[in-house]
Amino acid sequence: MHRRLVATIGALAVLGGAVAFALNSSATRSPGAARRVEADPGREEAEEAVEDLRKAAGHTSAGNAAAPVVNAPSQGWAPEALWSATANDWEPAIAADPSSTWVYQATTRYGGPKACTQCPDPAIILRASSDGGVIWGPDRYICACRNTKAQNDPQLAVATNGTIYAVWLNDYNPGVVFSKSTDRGATWSAPLSVKGKGLSFSDKPILAISPNGQDVYIAWNASDSYMSASHNGGASFAARVKTNSDSLYWFAEGGVVAPNGNVVFGESAENQNATGQVKLAVIRSTNGGTSWTTTIVDTSEQQPACTVPSCSADFFASQAGVGVDAGGKLMVAYTLNTAAGTPKDLYVRTSTDGGSTWGARTEIGQNTGDAGFPVIEGAGANDFRVAWQDDRNGATSWNTWYRRTTDGGATWSSVVRLSDATSGPAYKNPNGYAFPYGDYFDLDVMPSGTNVLIWSEGNNYVGPGGAWFTRGA
Question: Is the pTM of this model over 0.70?
Answer without folding.
Answer: yes
